[in-house]
Specification:
The complex is a heterodimer of chains A (143) and B (384). Chain A is mostly beta strands and 143 residues long. Chain A is built from no helices and ten strands. Chain A has strands at residues 8-10, 15-16, 24-30, 36-38, 53-57, 61-70, 81-88, 93-98, 113-124, 130-138. Chain B is of the alpha/beta class and 384 residues long. Helices cover 35% and strands 19% of the residues of chain B. In chain B, strand 10 (360-369) and strand 11 (373-383) form a beta hairpin. In chain B, helix 1 crosses helix 2, helix 3 (83-96) packs across helix 12 and helix 5 packs across helix 10. The two termini of chain B are 14 Å apart. Classes of the chains: A mainly beta (143), B alpha/beta (384). Chains A and B meet through strand 6, strand 7, strand 8 and strand 10 of A and helix 4 and strand 5 of B.
Chain lengths: 143, 384
């Protein structure tokens, strides 16, 4: 088992590792058109304005926009798992793995509220640091 | 796009050719297209070669060395699943601009079996499974789920796409899969990513297709107009912004925008189109593109497949070639193979699957990669 106390490192560029453990997703909000994008951007992808983008912390809750159950993945990757796209409360969209029971009908999962948690993926980099990435936990029934 | 024609076009039967090289497959298709045009490599002034997986390894030059190294520029093109269509479009633009009278477009691919392993991902963190998936079926399955949640489109309606396209392919001896697949079999097939079962996924095969693009003036001067097909429009767009794309690569909006551009540029509407070859990489995609290409209103694609109007003999046949679901999907070759199918019908050479009286046909291609972006091309061809 890998060291549970390994130093955390962001597995993806839009995850922020906080020294006090308050890890979160970072996004960009355009003051011109109001669009919220995932990650730190230099310009707004939606309207093309380049001096209007402010980096903002994204919420740790959201709802399932869509998902599917992956029964075939790359060799060595355990299946099945749920690949989901989450509409983050307050703006932004992020993809990832949805924990919980494998649904018989993924369509029924659309709208389900989730908590977005930044967790140890169990993977380590060459320096032994822990890759942290987003994971989605179901909070209740789909709405 | 006035004055540009396809003077010759062909594809090799798609399949698995472990003993043949990329350049051998591309050369065969190129020579078939030249023969179809009644021209030789001596007439060709430029080569545009599409290969999605080997674009950095000079595929066009390798093909040229197989068919005759006449002095000419070669441009290797890569644009995901839109690679072949993008290479063709470059040939069209080169001729339309007056730069060349005759250009050769080749699309060619050698593929591994199974899931496409996406290139260019940073090493270290293994994201597959940890943050969802970057496998291609997922994107189209998730898009299908979005549609089902919004409009009630059913698993059965998506599955009917495979039944229809596999039926069409029984009349196409260049398709990789040429057998009927009843609805029950499609739905009971291994579930890859709901709602796409294995029989609702296109197949990774080897393939090549090629087209000879000339000016209409050249075709007239050399007596090639009898079999020529006019290129009415070559439209392409990429990575149109959508509010969901940070989580799910868009194939819908980019297709809608490209189709709109194509119809407007050509001064045509969907009501003018006699047949469509669209990008059915997965069964869910075909229904979404019915709406994106304007074949029906938003939310009505399930009813459209139920109606049978997109089957051969229906009001607007779609993928009478059998589509990618049957022909297979050798990424770089697919776009030109779709154009080949349209040309067969416009020339009245499609045999048992001929769409009677076809005058205008639309070929659509769209590709993309999770987190990265999309590329789309829509060509409208007309009987000359």
């Amino acid at each position: 088992m890998s060291d549970p106390l390994a130093e955390p490192v962001a597995a993806v560029p839009y995850v922020v590792i906080d020294r006090d453990g308050d890890h979160h997703l970072i996004g960009s909000r355009c003051a011109q058109c109001g669009t919220t994008l995932l990650g730190r951007r230099v310009a707004c992808a939606a309207c093309g304005t380049h001096d209007s983008v402010e980096h903002v912390r994204l919420a740790d809750t959201g709802r399932v926009r869509t998902c599917t159950v992956i029964n075939r993945s790359y060799p060595g990757v355990p299946v099945p798992f749920i690949a989901a796209v989450i509409d983050i409360d307050g703006g932004g969209v992020v993809r990832g793995t949805l924990r919980g029971d494998i649904p018989a009908d993924p369509v029924a999962e659309v709208g389900r509220p989730v908590r977005i948690s930044i967790e140890d993926s169990g993977q380590r980099d060459t320096a032994g640091r822990a890759f942290y990435s987003q994971v989605f936990h179901p909070l209740g029934a789909a709405a | 796009m006035s004055g540009v024609v396809i003077a010759g076009i062909d594809m090799i039967p798609f399949g698995r050719f472990p003993d043949r090289s990329l350049e051998d497959l591309g050369a065969e298709a190129a020579l078939m297209a030249l023969a179809d045009a009644d021209l030789t490599i001596h007439d060709v002034q430029a080569l545009y070669c599409g290969s999605a997986l080997q674009a950095t390894a000079f595929p066009g030059q390798r093909v040229l060395r197989r068919i005759g190294q006449r002095t000419m520029p070669v441009l290797n093109v890569v644009n995901g699943c839109a690679t072949g269509a993008s290479a063709f479009r470059e040939a069209v633009l080169a001729v339309a601009s007056g730069r060349h009278d005759v250009a050769l477009a080749v699309g060619v691919e050698k593929m591994d079996r199974g899931l496409i392993v996406m290139p260019g991902r940073p090493s270290g963190f293994q994201e597959e499974g940890a943050i969802g998936t970057i496998t291609t079926p997922c994107m189209f399955s998730q898009a299908g789920v979005v549609h089902s949640a919004a409009y009630g489109t059913t698993f059965e309606q998506y599955a009917k796409v495979s039944v229809k396209n596999h039926h069409h392919a029984t009349m196409n001896d260049k398709a990789f899969v040429r057998r009927e697949t009843p609805l029950e079999e499609v739905m009971a097939s291994e579930m890859i990513a709901y709602p796409n079962t294995k029989l609702m996924c296109s197949i990774n095969v080897d393939g090549a297709a090629a087209a000879i693009v000339t000016s209409e003036a050249f075709a007239r001067k050399h007596g090639l107009m009898a079999r020529a097909v006019r290129v009415r429009v070559a439209a392409s767009l990429a990575s149109v912004f959508t509010e969901m794309e940070d989580g799910l690569t868009d194939f819908n909006e980019v297709t809608r925008e490209t189709a709109k551009l194509a119809y407007e540029s050509a001064g045509l509407g969907v009501e003018d189109i006699d047949l469509v070859e669209l990008h059915d990489c997965f069964a869910t995609a075909e229904l979404l593109h019915y709406e994106n290409l304007g074949l029906c209103a938003k939310g009505e694609s399930g009813a459209l497949i139920d109606s049978g109007e997109t089957a051969l003999g229906g009001r607007l046949p779609v993928n009478v070639s059998g589509g990618l679901l049957s022909k297979g999907h050798p990424l770089g070759a697919t776009g030109i193979a779709n154009l080949y199918e349209i040309c067969l019908h416009l020339r009245g050479e499609a045999g048992m699957r001929q769409v009677e009286g076809a005058r205008l046909g639309l070929a659509h291609i769209v590709g993309g990669m999770t987190d990265y972006g999309s590329a789309c091309a829509v060509h409208i061809l007309e009987r000359a």
